[in-house]
Amino acid sequence: MNRNPKNYFAEVEQAAFDPKNVAPGMGFSPDKMLQGRLISYPDAHRYRIGVNYNLLPINEAKCPYSTYNRDGSMRYGENGGSGPNYEPNSFGGPTQDKKYLERPVTYNTATVGRYDHREHDGDYYTQPGNLFRLMTPDAQERLCGNIAAGLGQVETRIQDLQINHFYKCDPKYGEGVAKAIGRKIEEIVKKEELVGA
What's the pLDDT score for residue 192? Predict the structure, then answer.
């Protein structure tokens, strides 16, 4: 602070100090009181000032940054425009800069940190396929219809990507969604996968 406030309400009453605001790349100690404050301070600010308290001039970042946070009361500015609000995406949206990740911490023999589940080979299809097969035929049809109601409104490229995921869970699942949006599964799924099913 290098001056007295010019507008007490704007610069003092709306100020939202928060222990989670640290220099990029720094981590937080395992102190239980600090861990509780990392959650409770922003929660109190959301209640007191509003969900977008961090966008008010007194609280806003002083350097450029990108985020996928959107909407909420008193949201102003361009609000992300028509771009996606998720990562990864195929629309060139901002991506996480790994050099700012919090460093892992080792306790006894276990290491606690943030890990990208996409870096390891995983089975993303067996469990949803099993769930689909547990459903009755009319429940499967309703599910495909509900998905198609939203998926039918997006561009064909996105439809193809998503229906391929459903097909890998269970061929009937992919076929059902494709049929519900008026498409043929043969036009979407690669021929070698259709033969192997």
Answer: 53
Q: What is the pLDDT of residues 8-45, one digit of tens each?
A: 999 999 999 988 888 777 778 888 898 889 989 999 99
**Structure tokens given for 99:** 């050099």
Confidence (pLDDT) at 118: 73
Tokens describing residue 144 = 């495909």
CA distance 169 to 127: 8
Q: What residue type is 130 in one-letter code? A: N
DSSP string, 94-130: ----GGGSPPPEEETTEEE----GGGS----SHHHHH
How long is the chain?
197
CA separation for the pair 156, 162 (Å, rounded): 10
The torsion angles phi and psi of 105, rounded to 5 degrees, stand at -120, 135
Distance CA(164)–CA(120), nearest Å, equals 20
Per the listing, tokens 């996409």 go with: 118
* Structural tokens at position 11: 């610069």
Does the pTM exceed 0.90?
Answer: no
Which H or E run includes 173?
helix 171-180
